[in-house]
TrEMBL record:
It is a multi-pass membrane protein. It is found in: Cell membrane. Residues 708-822 form the Cyclic nucleotide-binding domain. Keywords: Cell membrane, Ion transport, Membrane, Sodium, Sodium transport, Transmembrane, Transmembrane helix, Transport. It comes from the Bacteria. SUPFAM superfamilies: cAMP-binding domain-like. This is Sodium/proton antiporter (CPA1 family). Signal peptide: none annotated. It comes from Palleronia aestuarii.
Amino acid sequence: MDIVLVTTVIACLFLVIGAAEPLAARLRLPFSVILAVLGMLIGAGAIFFLRTDLTDALNPVAEAILGLPIRSNVFLYVFLPTLLFQATLGMNLRRMLDDWVPIIVLAVVAVVVATLSVGYALSWASTLPLAACLLIGAIVSTTDPSAVVTIFRSISAPRRLARIIEGESLLNDAAAIALFGLFMGFVMLGLPDPELGEALARFPVLIGGGVVAGWLIARLAVWVMALFSRHELAQISISVALPYLAYIGAEQIIGASGVIAVVAAGLTLNLTGPGRLPPQSWTNLRELWDVLAHWAGSLIFILAALLIPRLLEEVRLEDFLLVGVVILAAIAARAVILFGLLPLLSALRLSPVVERPYRAAILWGGLRGAVTLALALAVTESFRVPDGIQRVVGILATGFTLFTLIVQGTTLRWVIGRLGLDRLSPIDEALSRQVVAVALQTVREDVARTTENYDLNRDTVRSEAKRFGERLDSAVKSAEDSADILDRDRITLGLIALAGHERDMILVRVRERTISARMAEQVLSDADRLIEGARSQGRNGYNRAARRSVAYGKGFRVAVLLNGWIGLSGPLARITADRFELLLSQRLVLRDLGTFIDGRIRRIHGRRVAELLHELLIRRIEMVETALEGLQLQYPGYSEELERRFIRRTALRLEEREYAAMREDGLIGAEVYTALIQTLDARRAVAEERPRLDIAVQRAELVRQFPLFADLDDAVLKRLGRALETRYVNAGEVIFRKDSAARSVFFIASGAVELETAGQTWRLGRGEMFGQMAILMNKARRAEVRAIAPSTLLVLDEARFRRLLNRSSAVQRAVRASAEKRGIAPEDLFAEVDTPDEGRDPAKT
């Protein structure tokens, strides 16, 4: 085939792709639907011109179109890794973990249920072998929710809904293609009735092997990319090779799922890349992958659509019945998951609630697309699959895809409108009117200053001012008519605005490199949680998200256990260092939010709402300061190192800005500017490195700062530091309950706790102890103790505490004071306590 003609056809396809996007926007249809229709028209037109006697002039073009080297391996080995890899890079993984249950249910459980539902329905309605029916079920279970994501974004639907659908699209393809590989093997071997248990038992092996392969290859790639930190093009080139090496390595070398390997590689790069690569390199890498994925997704769709006319050439009347069976079975399976399993999981508190209108939109938005057609094409090309099965698989997969694109795709926006998802809530409508009024008042002031500065014609200014004043009066009247917004709703809207501004401030700080790329994603995730918490549950949701942002996570607890059980301190040191940097970043941003409340929110929602938001902001700052104080107390030197690093990075940013200004003013030439920036980049690479945190030598320093241990010498303090155990607790966590056995005494290194007994409460803070009364009175606990802030506790067992009490007069005084506060006679507690002896070791057993 003439290479020039083929190149011309491919270039024309890119023109079609470029025209499809504005056409889709004008017709208000999903982009993928427009691509599919255009692809089918081009394919049908090529067949028509080859078979008609009207003219032979277009035959070479038609032959070039139909003769394009479109094979299933092109889709699976060239386009699919690109799409999957880019999807993983664009995901906010930390936020998706909040909705991992519905994502897994839709992406894995729904795929298995749809495969079985379609497979057994076809087996009942046709004479096809069960293996072939299950193969068709796996093929048609791959959804393409890009269209519904696009529409949801256009109507400003909650980000959480878009995340669920994006997570489904990523894992859905991986799970479905893994199942496809299983049943394809049964069909090619000619087994009529495969053992379903045997097939599903191999499924985890494919998944696990792909995960391990993708993780290993990605870790190696990140290591190499970090070595080339000053060579951005080299880093991007390695990233382009990564998904293909992962896919081929998993498929051809270890026999695992290549799709799963690509997903694992992308997730690994997503998690580790921002901390190992320069920020600008990471940004440019993701932008390049966005473009590659757009081209790959468009080409895979339009090339697959070119094949549809050929796949439908041998369609028979009974095939329409089977297509109907596939449609009903697939939709029914998806409905069972969305309206049966998900509400059940929500009722059992195993999954966040997904609102009914959104579940309906997800059901109708389950479009099938290019991946379904590519898998069907792989079956039709295999000479090891019987001809009859090839024909039926091609027709059923194509027919079902056309139904979802033409019927569901074209009516999706109408369905969303009927569900009311494209309309603002009454609160948001009232807010929009007030925002317009406030904005126009500000605009009027700015326009007045502008006209004075430019000395414009007074008649013209007066005429335009009159028109603008009429619009302003109308906006103010409309805002006054919506004055029925409750204070509770105003607070909610103010919190949403405050959290949104916080997110914007984080992005500014990241661009300025004040917040490191390592922390950017996590800080942004916390801001997203604040927005969604305020949207769904108002002030309570906002406060819950704020507490979560400073709390100790599950990963931290696992790291503590690993450090305590097997002495593996690396994970704990890394997570603690991340927590340090996260809290410093939060404190930096929070201190700038007060101006936004006074300057913007007060003008829209009034003084009362602004004052309440100030109170909530002050509490958040106090929480961050408390958590940060605990870390600074435990690791004082490390906190100072991080602050020095922040100052150095800020100075480098300002220095770079000065060089750029001099370059723009012509004070220095390009050669000098380049040399200065190269030198600055070398210093920045050193400044970006985070200092190493040594957690092994910190406990003795922490113990030394306790006033209770002030009368102990250095040798005793060191041994006591080794005897004490560190325990971290979140705000709200119960440390011990009433009537529990007394075996330990707790010393508060940071944070605060609340004791409740007999209807009374006491609060204790840094430097105080609790739990000693029950031990000294030989009774069960009479109080329940709960942390009221993220706290670091030092725990000493009963025997060592009694020895400490016998040796330390400061501890004895603290015990006496606590007993008197609770109305307990001190002599009842010290009947068995010896006179302090400084020569004995309280930590010695």
